[in-house]
Amino acid sequence: MNTEKVENLIRELLSEIGEDPGREGLTRTPKRVAQALSYFTSGYRADVDKLINEARFDQETTSMVIVRDIEVYSLCEHHLLPFFGRCHIGYLPGGRVFGVSKLARLVDLYARRLQIQERLTEQIAYAICDAIKADGVGVVIDARHLCMMMRGVEKQNSVFVTSSLLGVFRNNDATRHEFLAIVTRPRPEV
User: Is 189 a catalytic residue?
Assistant: First the structure.
């Protein structure tokens, strides 16, 4: 990303909305916004294989692996406003498992792009399935969208829920129900 060009565009935007980009509170805003946008969109410059690296391990198990309540922050591609919430991931290993932190890192990689929640949910699920050839994957995201809260319909308490179920999570009722029951139960005290 050409940060100097982005800074100039932000100065121009500030002028267009009626602000003085030279006033004290705004003089460093273009630089701050450029840095923030670079971070918020760092997922475009990240590589899934490098992120996962050597954190795939051979492990024969029939246990479902679940990580709940992974914080997720992204930008809606329609209004460039944040949406935020929690991501819940489960998978049935096909002989390989992930290092647990890699699941949260995968969420961040895809969330740090301009997104719609539906695509984000599917990208995470397919990346997990492809990386370890899992027998099944389930991803659920519940999020609040500032584009619905601050503008438009202005609904403060709405939560948008998306799910992507692959393999046995889609084809086997018992597996799907077990996953959904675990990720929707009240948060445990730890």
Answer: no
